[in-house]
């Protein structure tokens, strides 16, 4: 009986570890930013020049509670703010307002797929780079290395940036930034298991990749976290190879002969579009939305929405950047 109890405890500990992940050290990912919409945390994004970030399309459309396709209705650029360098010693971080946002012209969410899940944010003024705090991920220059990592995933150690989930009586809050090990698979493996063997979803190896990890993340929020790969766990150089794209959307949780896990939007495919994207001319710049006192509002009630369903689970989110609570606090909203 004691042996059974020990096995049960070990099993539960393993399950918790797989779902929770590890706390992420701020200096590991200085190119990872918080995307805010009307001062509420929405998603993660990757700074790839001092004035531009790549994000997922589903984070930038006005309503992702159901199916969406071109022509897209996008969030108003003046309501989109990017926060970087948020650390305990830097409680305010560095805020920049978007001058324009765009999504891939073929971005589309259907009941069977989410393709071309790419978006871009142009800032009204550059981020000031600071070593170990704010940095640029050179995805434009590293697109060949990114493709090599995706084509040979067994040669790389990869992690997914995500957020811990704090259960509440009603809904949940998002906690600190975390990293979880991800086992990326080859394009051929993904196509066979996600499309050929599973008749409930469509898969496009030109713009997607997938994982076969042990985690069970389905129905957790899809905040467009970055997938980062390196030659070893401790290697300082990390490639941003993909973005989380199919957790709540038409993939995660479906089952035919094979249980579908997370799907990801390929970063090298995003680079092809980013290299040709030209921001529209702007006539003015905007400042972050503030209340009557000039302070940034905090902790507003929010709604989390999933592509492919008309239901929305109401919850109040608190955004805690990295492993410590920072000010200002941002309420998460989709």
UniProtKB/TrEMBL annotation:
Annotated segments matching region Disordered: 281-308
Gene Ontology terms for molecular function: serine-type endopeptidase activity
Keyword Signal in annotation: yes
Annotated signal sequence range: 1-21
Domain Peptidase S1: 19-279
Record has Signal as a keyword: yes
SMART domains the record matches: Tryp_SPc
BP terms from Gene Ontology: proteolysis
Keyword terms: Signal
Name the UniProt record assigns to this protein: Peptidase S1 domain-containing protein
Species this chain originates from: Apolygus lucorum
